[in-house]
Please model this.
Amino acid sequence: MKFLGFIVVGLAGAILLYGTGDFPDWGDPYSPASLHISKDYIEKALDQTKVPNIVTAVLADYRGFDTMFETAVIFTAGLACFLLLRDFREKKERFYRHTPTGVILHVKAGKKILDGGKEFEYMDKDWVPSDLIIKTVCRILIPFIQIYALYVVAHGDFSPGGGFQGGVIFGSSLILLAISYNLKTLVKRISEKMLGVYAALGVLIYLGIGVICMLMGGQFLDYAKLAPLIPFDSNHIRALGMLGIEIGVGIAVTAVMAIIYINIVSEGRHDEGL
Amino acid sequence: MTDLLALIVAKYNYWLYVILMMIGLYAMIAKNNLIKKLVGMNIFQTAIILFYISIGYKKNATLPIIENVHGTGGGHIYAIDYINPLPHVLMLTAIVVSVATFGVAMALAVRVYQRYKTLEEDELRMRLSEK
Model:
C-alpha cells in the first residue's frame, strides 16, 4: 500500500510539475488571473464602494452571496459537530469538591444527585487544579485578545481584517479561557444554548441586512438602498452595510469555533475534558 | 540540465506547492491512522491556499488596500500597483471553512473512536468485518 501510494503520488507530482511549465512566472503583473475582473475591482472599488480595502469590498459587496453561503457552511459545520457528538445522557458517577477544604465526595451510580449549594462544585474525575502562572497570564491576556478581535472586525473596511479573522481571534480567546481554567469555566460564562443562538444570530444578521435591502426596494445585499435608514453618512453607506455583515460573520464564526472546541474536547459531555 | 534549472528558478513557487501537495496526498493515501490522514488533508489544503495566493502576487506591487484615500493626491488608481485581491478573498473564506470542516472531521473521528476504540484503519476494517 505504501509503495503503491508512493508511485501514485510520484506520478501525480510529475504531471503537475510538468504542467507548471505553462504557468505564468512568479510575480508577473500580466498573468491571466490579474487581467480581467481583478483589474476592474482594483480600479473601481474605491469609487463604487468607498472602501479602501479591496479585499473586503470584493468579499462583502461584489461577492456577497458567496460569503453569505460560506457563513452558512460554517454554521452548518458547528451544527454537524453538535449533532454528531452531543451526549445528553446522565453520568453514572459524580464527583463533588468542597471548595474551602478541597475534600472530594464520590457519589456512586444510582444514588441521589447532590445539591450542596455554593460550597460544593461538581467536577470531573481526572480534574487537576490549574497552574497559577498560566491562569494569571491568561487572565491578563484574554481581554486584550478580545479587544484586538473587535478591532479587527471593526476595521475590516480600512485595514487587513474582517469578520472571519476577527471571529477566529475572538473564538480562540474563548478557547484559551477553556484551556487555562477548565471547560466548565467557559460553559459557565457562555452557555451552550447562547452559543447556538449566537451562531444562528450571525447568519441571521447577514441575511437580515440582505432582506432589508430588498424591502427598501433594491436587490438582495444592495447596500446603497440602506441610505434612508442611516441618514447621517450616506456617502459611506456601502461601507456601513459591509461593517454590518462583517459583524454578523464575526459573531457566527466566534460561536462556531467555541461549539466545535467544546464538543470535541469533551466528547459532547460539556463537563469534563481539557 | 541548465534548461531545467532555469525553469525551476523561474517557477520555484509552483514546485514548492506541488511538493507540499504531494506530501499531503501521500499522507492521505498511505497513512494508517485517521488523524494522520486528516493532517495530510490539511497540508494539501495549505498547498492549494499558497498556490492561489502566489497567483495573485505581482512584482513591485503593494497589498490591495488603496493608499492615501483622504490625501490630496487622489489621481488614477492603476491595477499594476496593487496585488490581485481576488485570490485573497477566495482563500480568506477557504481558510475559515477548512477550519470548520476539519472540526467536523475531528468530530467524526471522535465518534469512530467512541464506537470502535481505535483509529487505525486496518483495525477498523477488522472490526467491521467481524459483524
